[in-house]
Amino acid sequence: MIDHETAQRRRLRVRGRRACNGCAAHSTAASRGHAEELFDRLLEDRTVRVAVIAIWWWLGWHFLAGDTL
User: Fold this and answer.
1) Structure confidence by residue, pLDDT tens digits, 10-58
2) Other Cβ atoms closer than 10 A to 12
3) Residue 1: CB partners within 8 Å, gap ≥ 6?
4) How far apart are CA 21 and CA 15, in angstroms?
5) Which of 57, 22, 30, 21 is nearest to 49 (CA)?
6) N or C, fewer C-beta in 10 Å, the chain?
7) Where are the domains of the chain?
8) Cα gap 60→55, rounded to integer Å
9) DSSP state, 44?
10) CA–CA separation, 43 and 53 (whole Å)
């Protein structure tokens, strides 16, 4: 039997995944062959550029640097 807190965390994870999938589906549908234009429009915002750099840094630090540090 699953306790209440575990069920809540599971529902939160499912909702988060649905939100991410919805955003991905929306951006895919919005681009429809205009991916370059969409990417250029996104990168015009400084906040998005900083977020992209932070995400790439995090991925590199956790997956590429791994056991070498």
Assistant:
1) 889 999 999 988 888 887 777 676 767 777 888 898 998 999 899 989 8
2) 10
3) none
4) 10
5) 57
6) N
7) 1-32, 34-69
8) 9
9) T
10) 11
Which two tokens mark 66? 């791994």
5-18 confidence digits (pLDDT tens): 888 888 899 999 99
pTM over 0.70: no
Residues 8, 5: Cα–Cα separation, whole Å: 5
Per-residue tokens: 47: 């906040």
CA 14 to chain centre: 15
Asked if residue 1 has pLDDT above 70, the reply is: no
Q: How far apart are CA 6 and CA 31, in angstroms?
A: 38
CB of 34 closer than 8 Å to CB of 28:
no
Residues making up the chain, counted from first to last: 69
